[in-house]
Design a protein that fits this description.
5-stranded antiparallel beta sheet; 4-stranded antiparallel beta sheet; F-box-assoc_interact_dom; 40% strand; 299 residues; disordered C terminus; 4 domains; Thrombin, subunit H; mainly beta; F-box domain-containing protein; F-box-like_dom_sf
């Protein structure tokens, strides 16, 4: 078979099939392992009309993934050796999932990177700052270094970054002073346009902080003022991603009404904030954590 034809066919197959086809010949092994092929296969996956997967956990520490449209449930064994303690799913990028596992004697968080398609997993080194305080995590791909990176931020504004190729944590530049990250242990950083994003607060307002994955520079992104006007109580807020766009949401209480507001930053400039959803309902009485959105397909 012609190499170009084989490349095109293999590039449309699921990952688990490619793992089997690596054994066909040395040529196919080399082809499937080539970085260019991996990039092409990833692009084909994102353009595929087949529903993406949801990855969930439950109290029995069994991972479950199923398409959003077809109710086909598949159970995955927990990659942790000790299944007596809890673990958490934090974030994902290009089919890789970042998990936190609490199964070590000191009860500090151990990070694990999982590929649900291949069932491969890797324990990551402990961060330099072993904190039991609230912290949040982000996973993203740095195209300038061709490497995946993980950013950790805690509620004391301390941050450090891990590059998977080097396997070591490095403290980042000093976080801007006089601001406080709005974090919970279940939040994840929104990664879009080559930067991580999270919500912060100052003495007077909320806004979004971004951190470039390549040049490690912080930037402020103001939120639309209309997001918080005329509300007596703000219960929940955060940032997420929708269709490759940065978005922000808030859950506010005004009188007897609960209001859920959802804004999208269409062109990644401040003036492009657009109100996407305004929903009024009386049962929204709990803060939202780690909210994800998806148009047409879901992860």
């Amino acid at each position: 078979m012609d190499v170009d034809v084989a490349t095109d066919i293999l590039g449309r197959l699921p990952v688990r099939s490619l793992l089997r086809f690596k054994c066909v010949s040395k040529l196919w092994m080399t082809l499937i392992s080539d970085p260019y092929f991996k990039m092409k296969h990833l692009n084909n996956t994102w353009n595929d009309k087949i529903p993406k997967k949801l990855l969930l956990t439950n109290a029995t520490l069994i991972l479950t993934r199923f398409p959003c449209i077809v109710e086909q449930v598949q159970k995955l064994d927990c990659p942790s050796n000790n299944k007596s303690l809890c673990h958490t799913l934090y974030c994902c990028c290009d089919g890789l999932v970042l998990m936190g596992i609490f199964d070590y004697p000191d009860k500090y968080l151990q990070l694990l990177l999982l590929n649900p398609s291949t069932r491969e997993s890797t324990l990551l080194p402990f961060p330099k700052i072993l904190s039991k305080d609230n912290c949040t995590w982000g996973l993203g791909f740095d195209s300038t270094s061709d490497d995946y990176k993980i950013l950790k931020i805690d509620d004391k504004s301390r941050s450090e970054i891990l590059a998977l190729k080097t396997g070591s944590w490095r403290l980042t530049n000093k976080h801007p002073i006089d601001v406080r990250p709005m974090l919970t242990s279940t939040d994840s950083l929104a990664f879009v346009h080559g930067a991580f994003h999270w919500l912060i607060s100052s003495l007077t307002k909320y806004y979004v902080m971004s951190f470039s994955i390549s040049d490690k520079v912080y930037r402020d992104i103001p939120l639309p003022e209309q997001m918080y006007l005329n509300f007596s109580k703000l219960c929940g807020r955060g940032v997420s991603i929708l269709g490759g766009m940065l978005c922000a949401y808030s859950h506010c209480v005004s009188g007897w009404k609960d209001m859920f507001k959802f804004w999208v930053m269409k062109d990644y400039v401040n003036v492009s904030w657009t109100e996407f959803l305004l929903y009024e309902v009386s049962i929204f009485n709990q803060p939202y954590q780690n909210i994800c959105f998806r148009m047409e397909k879901c992860y």
